[in-house]
Amino acid sequence: MGPVPHVEVVVVGGGAAGMSAASRVKRIHKDWTVRVFEASGYVSYAPCGLPYFIVGKVKEPDDLVYYPVEVFREKRGIDVHTHAKVVDADYHKRTVTVIENGEKKEYKWDKLILATGARPKSLGVEGEDLRGVIKLHTVESGIAAREELKDAKEVVVVGAGFTGVEVAAELRDSEREVHLVVRSRALRKSLDPEMSELVEEHLKNVGIRLHKGVTVTKILGKDRVEGVELSDGEVIKAQAVVVAVGVEPNAELAKRLGVKLGKFGGIKVNEYMETNLPDVYAAGDVAESWLVHTGTEAWCPFAPPANKMGLVAGLSASGKRVPFPGVACTGITVASGLEIGRTGLTEEEAKALGFKVKSSFVKARTRAHYYPGSQFTHVKLVAAEDGTVLGVQVVGPEGVKGRVDAVATLLTKRGTVRDLFFSDIGYVPPLAPVWDPLVTAARLLYSELR
């Protein structure tokens, strides 16, 4: 038997998925060379924490980092390159071209893992390059945003997805005047209309000025932001504008490489995170996936699945075959004391996929009615006509995550409304009533479906 060949693995992207993949490869094959190229100055960071960092709840940039780069270099033996932008890749030559310190370099690879993440969408309007226009993405973008917001008393937030709602609420909690510009409705891609209305009402109650059914047509100012002009002609005075109109897969490198893309513009992968090109893998926000309970195509740029996809990609690149089961698209946020969560499909999404849908919508207490602090939460449960649970949305003052997580777990087993109704969900007066809101929603739907 001849010598074991040396293998060089290149990971493009040092976020959650990239570092998860790199760490797994190095753990399995300590003698392999594993290189990570990250365009920013940080790896293994948490962009989900940026809304809290820009208002000072998270104090230091390093607090957003799960592990400092030294851990990966010195303890795990990974060759991490920060401020290193991969600008090209060649499949036939098995090389990547990287710009580091102003110099163009070329590195060989035997296995390539693409973890280039997602990037913020642009408004595409005049003035978007002014100082004071904020797009949260990297730690550096958060550092710049905190500086821009330091003296801003009036801020416009454009877009009401998870990031937009979080940022608007955090800015309002820090006593700024906040205008939230929404093309249609808050959390449109995450909640059905009746649940979105609850969020909008709460945002207005805490003092956020909601501008619905309009778009920003121009950002005003000479050197820096002075305000925005809306499509209905209204002009809003502001010293900063946060653009949060969504993200898209950062798949430019994949295109140049010849990797096949999917329905949502992300990289198409199989259950082992393999692309159409042998020895090329993809993971995290740049990769598409599928819903764990329906098998339909999905793109869910959230941190938990990104980490798991990275682990699977690392295993596959190492020669281990462990399949990724898919995602439930679970999303949770908190806006000025209101907890908002969803998992699976909304009613609108399910109908668009061709499901014949049944749903229940309940308002129920979060604790026993006699226990101090008992409040009301809202639950919308969505199921197919055969009783299979398709998804849930929960909006309320407390206990939202636990209820959403319960359904997310059920979805992985393609559970039914009956399964949910008869689940032995815990009861204790300070935390939940005898009839948990989730069980109440299941009871109503179970009665209808029988």
From TrEMBL:
<dbReference type="InterPro" id="IPR036188">
    <property type="entry name" value="FAD/NAD-bd_sf"/>
</dbReference>
<dbReference type="InterPro" id="IPR023753">
    <property type="entry name" value="FAD/NAD-binding_dom"/>
</dbReference>
<dbReference type="Pfam" id="PF07992">
    <property type="entry name" value="Pyr_redox_2"/>
</dbReference>
<dbReference type="InterPro" id="IPR004099">
    <property type="entry name" value="Pyr_nucl-diS_OxRdtase_dimer"/>
</dbReference>
<comment type="similarity">
    <text>Belongs to the class-III pyridine nucleotide-disulfide oxidoreductase family.</text>
</comment>
<dbReference type="InterPro" id="IPR016156">
    <property type="entry name" value="FAD/NAD-linked_Rdtase_dimer_sf"/>
</dbReference>
<keyword id="KW-0274">FAD</keyword>
<protein>
    <submittedName>
        <fullName>FAD-dependent pyridine nucleotide-disulphide oxidoreductase</fullName>
    </submittedName>
</protein>
<dbReference type="GO" id="GO:0016491">
    <property type="term" value="F:oxidoreductase activity"/>
</dbReference>
<feature type="domain" description="Pyridine nucleotide-disulphide oxidoreductase dimerisation">
    <location>
        <begin position="333"/>
        <end position="433"/>
    </location>
</feature>
<keyword id="KW-0285">Flavoprotein</keyword>
<keyword id="KW-0560">Oxidoreductase</keyword>
<dbReference type="InterPro" id="IPR050260">
    <property type="entry name" value="FAD-bd_OxRdtase"/>
</dbReference>
<dbReference type="Pfam" id="PF02852">
    <property type="entry name" value="Pyr_redox_dim"/>
</dbReference>
<feature type="domain" description="FAD/NAD(P)-binding">
    <location>
        <begin position="8"/>
        <end position="290"/>
    </location>
</feature>
<keyword id="KW-0676">Redox-active center</keyword>
